[in-house]
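Predict the 3D structure for this chain.
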Amino acid sequence: KELAQIDKSAVDAVQLYPSYPDPNTTPSFLGQNHAYSVVFRGNGEAVVSLKVTLTNKGSDDLKEINLRLPNINPTDISVYQMLRTSSCSRYKYQEYDAASKTYIQLNPPVCEQYQPIDYYSGYGSYKYQKADSDFTGDTLTIALPVPITANSSGSYFVYFRAFGFAKKNVFGAYDFDFESLKTEDEIANLSVGISTDSDFVLKNAQGSVNYRVEAPNFAAVGGTVALGVPAASTQMDSYVAQIGRGTISKSASNLSVLESYSVSGSYAKSRLQLYAKQLITIALIIVVVAVLIIALLKVMLRKFSKKKINADEGVDTKDQEQAMPSKTRNLLVSLGLSFASSLFMAIYTGLLIFASTNLSRLLGYQYEMFFVLFIVVISFCVYSVLLFGPALYVGAKRGVGWGMATILMTIFWLVIYLGVGLLVVYLLNPIRPIPTPYPVY
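Done. Predicted structure below.
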């Protein structure tokens, strides 16, 4: 009897310990949780998946929900309520028998206390039940098949397709501005995951991981998850688990009643279409800077090379006028040769980068070291000829000063190429912040 009493106390003590809190749990009084996954297609259509977790703060059962949509016309709307069964938090393993004055082992054990259902927690499995919905004007009205009781939480998801979030620009890329749905309650946390079809490029995105949310076949699932009958579905579980993910992820918090959150960006078939505006801007800036530099050099050369003609020096005005075109020609020759030399150096550098990144794949590892040494020797000769060759030619024909000026202008053009190259690399592959590490529970 004493042993049975000790066993019961030990079991009860173990069962009364609270479980470790879920780090992702949000206090229900702060508002709803909204998670979006948006997939933009090649025709500008957006496929939207929304998962909502909410709490009924009223005193009556919540039977109807209203969502305000932006200026779009959604199609293929599907709404399902997510239902979760309560789990036992404390079991009764033994029962005292007054007749025998002993404790009887219960098999199976009886649940003494059920844990309140918390949809904000990420633990547990769901059953799904189709909900009726009606879209009128800008409002989507959802009739919950299972009302949410007062001070209880619930969850549902919405799926629809719509045009209007993305528009095609003159370069063939799509500029999108996704706006979240508005609700008559505060939103504590909102996350948006943006993705595109696999053959499209998303601006400011890195890598090639496929984060697309694959929507289930609702027509096929509807046979098992029928209206009025909650049912489990592994296809639905996989679909719901992906909502909120995307190639690009954005988040917001503490949204007020009827407040929305917008995510803007671009996507295109190729990076050239996606960054055409920036590349054209860079090219125009380079042209303008080059024209200004040439004009400034000509003005400075004319100013400092001009000589004062005095009557007693015997210098004819015609000789002075003939001196200016000669200096101008020298400047143009030096600028032209330095630009051509720097351009060939930039092209050769690009070929070197391409060769270095593909050398092992093209030639094999066993020949890589030989070709690397060969390329180093050839590159030293090529760079020396391109840098000093035009300068030696100009120095021999126009003077040592113009030869040195040619070298300096070649270096100047190379610095401009380097800056433009770094800017283009930054635009095509922006540096993304390192994710903040979180403890694993």
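The two ends are 40 Å apart (CA to CA).
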